[in-house]
Amino acid sequence: MPLETTSIIVRVATPDDIHFASTITDEMESSAKARGTGIAKRSPDYIAEKMREGKAVIALTDTGTWVGFCYIETWSHGEYVANSGLIVSPNFRKSGVAKRIKECTFKLSREKFPNAKLFGLTTGLAVMKINSDLGYEPVTYSELTQDEAFWAGCKSCVNFDILTSKERKNCLCTAMLYDPKDHYKPEETAEDFKQHSKAYERLLRFKQSRFLKVFKKKQAQENAGGGDAGKKKMFAALSSLFHF
Prior knowledge:
By secondary structure, this protein is of the alpha+beta class.
């Protein structure tokens, strides 16, 4: 159905939406493979539980077709909150629905956890812009949760070796944070992103180039002789570095 003739509803997910759980996790996995990136894999049961808890946002057409999804995770006993797993069906990408889902998830997070710090990690300028429009600002990794359970989720990412080699102080992702007790107005963070978007883009590419050199050297040492497993791992890492 053409987008212009389709109304998209973005709302808090309920137990009635659980039948979409497998569709959502399948799309998360296929999208990550297409981009060449790693993700913290989630099962349909995990997504279903988020729906039962009222900690997820879903987007559907007015005819009931699944469009997109995002969920809330809490860390450090609720001190930190992450809006995770943002995914949009390929048929509805570049329609502006991702921003609507993020806005709804942000609002839900603030309602449920008004005192929590909201954070995220991203390698994409598009997500950085959406976050900036909501009031997030770039921060160092030290300002994020140090909950081991959160960082364990990075193990499924092909860049995990880079993260550990940097002692979790840096990686290809940019960290962004919204602190309800100390934050700029969304208009200010949005304007800052607009003024410095080119600099952010150069920074992302610089990090890619710098970390890639270190990673390639480390992999060359660890995979001396060049086995198939080492080559496959390197190819996956290279793919992720050049796909935002």
